[in-house]
Each structure stands twice: as structure tokens, then as C-alpha cells.
Specification:
By secondary structure, the chain is α/β, with parallel strands linked by helices. The chain is built from 11 helices and 7 strands. The strands form 2 sheets. The chain has a 5-stranded parallel sheet with strand order 3-2-1-7-6. The chain has a two-stranded parallel ribbon with strand order 4-5. Helix 3 links the parallel strand 1 and strand 2. Helix 6 crosses helix 7, helix 7 runs parallel beside helix 8 and helix 9 crosses helix 10. The protein is globular. It starts with a helix and ends with a helix.
Length: 267
């Protein structure tokens, strides 16, 4: 009888142990959801079927703030664009400090884009910062400080979590990337669509070409990031045109192939 009781006790212990070691799906789902919500703007989220035409589009606006920043923030908010990264240059923040609060109040993200925007696509510039890592760290720290100062003066506190590389991210070397990460910043991955509005000697993409690329890429990936520069002007009207075409695509998907051909031909 005593042996039977001991055996039953062992069986109960084994069952309890197995239950505790079994993955709790409800807890795991919660962790995944929370993790995804935090990383959504960095394009690591696996988005579900979009409810809005902008749900799986990130607009990245580099080199601000400038005279057009306030206008473009209002336009993006009005259009219901949810995911926007403003890559701010430190010295420009000193010129337009009030725009930072407008960006945050609209629910958008402020990213560190260095203090002077060094031309990292040039080999000698990259070599300089590799040889002088303290100079590269200064670019990051100084920008964080002026961003914090501008917001603190408006009663806001903010900690940059994203770093937007000046020039093409692939130009950055491992030592420089490591410094970015040491400063507590997550490098933004390269954009998917370059509007080419900052490339000297190259034609800027039209809103029709941008829509065509967005639609093409959305068939292949969950999130599409579009790079623009507000200082070039005209983006508020361009974004409204993009919104109109994306809306027509969503409302009548049966005409999608025809519309894509029209977009490629420029209507």
C-alpha cells in the first residue's frame, strides 16, 4: 500500500512538472504582440491585413527640421499616415526647435540623423570617422542633446531610439555601426523606395511612380519604407496625390492590374 501511494505521488509530481514546462501560448502571444508593437516603426513587425492604405507604409523624412516640417506634419496627420520617422540633423534642430513637439504630438518618431550630416558616401569621410571614432560619437551625442534640450524647453521628455544613417546605410562600416548601438540607438534599415529628391542631377520620382513602386513592393513584403526630404518642398501636395491613388486602389482592387499599367505609363 505504501509503495502504491509513493508511486501515485511520483506520477502527480511528473504531471505538475510537465505542465509547468509546457509553453504557455497565451503568454507567448502577449509577448510577441508587445514586442511587435515596440518594433513596428523599425520594420520588424509582421503586419496583418492593412485596414488603412497607409498601415504598412513608413514615410521616412530626412534632413529636417526645416521650413516645411510643420506643414508636412499636418498633412500626414490629416491623411491618417501612422508610421513616420523624422531623421533630424542636430544643427537644424537649433533653427526650428518648435517643430519637434509638433512631430511628437502627431504621434510620430524622432530619429537621430547626426549633427552635421557628414557625407558618408565618400570614402575619405568614412575613413576619417573610423580613425577618429570620438568624432563620430560626438555627432550622435550632440544631436541627442539638442533634441532633448529643445523638447525639455517645451515640457516634453524624449529619448531617441532610432538612428538614421546619413547617406546610404551600406556605406557605414562595422566600427561606426557599433558606436551607434553603444549609444543605445537602433539603426534604421535601408529604405525601399528612394524618391531621389536629394540626388543631384537625377530626376525626382513623380507621385505616380512612387505609388507604382509601393504597390509592387507590397505584393512582396509586409512593410514598405519611402524616403523623402521635406526641405525640397512640394511634398504635402505630392502626399495628397499619393493618398488619392492608393485609396482608389483599395476601393477597386479589380482594376489593379490596369491601374498599375497606367501608372507605369504615366496615365
Amino acid at each position: 500500500m505504501r509503495k502504491i501511494l509513493i508511486l501515485h505521488g511520483l506520477i502527480i509530481l511528473i504531471v505538475i512538472f510537465a505542465y509547468e514546462m509546457t509553453p504557455r501560448t497565451d503568454v507567448l502571444k502577449k509577448v510577441v504582440v508587445e514586442s511587435n508593437s515596440q518594433k513596428d516603426i523599425t520594420r520588424k513587425t509582421q503586419l496583418q491585413q492593412p485596414k488603412s492604405i497607409w498601415d504598412n507604409v513608413i514615410i521616412r523624412i530626412d534632413d529636417g527640421p526645416d521650413i516645411y516640417t510643420s506643414e508636412i506634419v499636418k498633412t500626414l496627420k490629416e491623411l491618417g499616415v501612422k508610421h513616420v520617422i523624422f531623421g533630424l540633423i542636430g544643427r537644424n534642430v537649433l533653427k526650428y526647435p518648435d517643430t519637434l513637439r509638433e512631430i511628437l504630438d502627431a504621434g510620430y518618431t524622432i530619429a537621430n540623423h547626426t549633427y552635421t550630416h557628414p557625407r558618408m558616401h565618400l570614402r575619405w569621410v568614412r575613413a576619417y570617422y573610423v580613425r577618429n571614432p570620438e568624432k563620430w560619437r560626438w555627432q550622435i551625442d550632440k544631436t541627442n542633446k539638442v533634441i532633448n534640450q529643445a523638447l525639455e524647453s517645451k515640457g516634453k521628455s524624449y529619448q531617441c531610439k532610432i538612428f538614421c544613417f546619413p547617406e546610404i546605410p551600406k556605406c557605414l562600416t562595422a566600427p561606426l555601426i557599433r558606436i551607434v548601438e553603444e549609444e543605445g540607438l537602433e539603426p534604421d534599415e535601408a529604405w525601399d523606395i528612394d524618391s531621389r529628391d536629394s540626388i543631384h542631377g537625377r530626376r525626382r520620382l513623380t507621385f505616380k511612380e512612387i505609388v507604382s513602386q509601393i504597390n509592387h513592393l507590397q505584393n512582396k513584403k509586409n512593410i514598405v519604407e519611402v524616403l523623402i526630404h521635406s526641405r525640397k518642398g512640394g511634398w504635402s501636395s505630392e502626399l495628397r496625390e499619393i493618398d488619392k491613388v492608393l485609396t482608389s486602389l483599395k476601393e477597386d482592387s479589380s482594376e489593379l492590374p490596369l491601374l498599375n499599367r497606367k501608372l507605369r505609363k504615366g496615365f
